[in-house]
Amino acid sequence: MISIWMSCLVTFSSLRVYTVANTRPVLDTLERIAIFGTDASTDLSDYHSVVVHLLNGTEPSEVDVRQFRERPPTLQYRVSLGNETFAISLRKNTNMISSRCIIRHVNGSGHSTVSPCVEHDVTCYYTGTTSDHNDSWVAASVCEGLKGLLSFGNTSLFIYPMKRTSDQTSTSTLPNHVIYRYQGDKHVCKTEDDVTEILHPTSQAQGRHQINGMKTRYIEAGIVVDPPMARFHNENILQYLFTGFNIASQLFADRSIGTLMKLLLSEIIVFNSPDGFDVSDTVDAEKTKNSFCEWQSKHHTLNKTDVTILLTRNDIEYGANDNGKSTNGLAFLSGACKIRKKCAVVEDTGPVFGLTLAHEIGHLQTIPYYYYYFYYYYYYYYYYYYYYYYYYYYYYYYYYYYYYNMYYYYYYYYYYYYYYYYYYYYYYYYFYYYYYYNYYYFLYYYYYYYYYYYYYYYYYY
User: Regarding predicted confidence, which is higher, 54 or 445?
Assistant: First the structure.
């Protein structure tokens, strides 16, 4: 029996998934936390098992990952859902990490160790499309399975590898991944919209150039991980961060934004200990954001980034002191131009935090609602706005029509007034002419008499 499930074939809003044996696998606690970001059964999305095969090359082993072995520039995957399949084409994302990116681990007593990002494996991250859809995009890590986001239209699917059993091989037909539709049931974000002017931040990144007549804009981001999140992910924290940032990077690279943009990771600070983390550790999103913004503005390296994001495991709320609502993030609208407002707080809700990350950075760059994630709602908002505009147009037209008629009648009366005035002017003209004529005539006669008088006088003289 065929069940309708939102996603992946033909349109992302109408994926057909065939009911097969064990289509909803049993996941242990660690798998649930890794995939969904939580172990709470009420927060788990509807998920299904799928078969993912790498079509070219071989899957990187754990040894390959540890040794940072070079991976091919392109990869192709096939995803099988029941008796349906679709292909994914990926290309290595070489525009995600800044050349001067650093990672800073802060341990007890505020002691920190610093290393370049390139000393860690940053070659696992790819972006691409599916061959079945024109409006699709994919952002995923290919190390230890396919792990990332697939998007078609208004739907986002997250795919994650399951623990491999002894029966599974690279050519096995047994399900080896979990796929689920991401549904943001919480408020994605709030904005502190206290900026009255539209600002256009200029990145501090170097190497700007022109592509197809359009200027490429660079956004350099600094990421700060709070102690609860660092403890939660432990040694997997960097791979986890890169996976989420790869999603955000791909969203900003989409040309439907209307300009060429590249989101670059320039610094990561991981607080493994509360020592040195002088940021308010609370569920109040606004208080945390304000505290973090003040802290990062004084940091000797973070104050040089275009935007700075705090990632937290706290279940943050907006308006926590007044029946607050749960939210995934909070940012200043247009804050990227101001050192104390170029910051945001994002809750770690699982690997899909990359969507919220992109959303908040969009707000910081003067984007009221990020084009992809809220496109559907923005469309309806725009639709309703359009209808309001439509009625306003008719109202304006109606008003204009009456105004036009009023003006016409006014012009009409003005015309008659002018005409009347013209007639007055006309009579005045004749009067003046008549008066002038008589005056001239009188002058003539006066001259005449004067002439004769002069003549007479002359004769007498």
Answer: 54
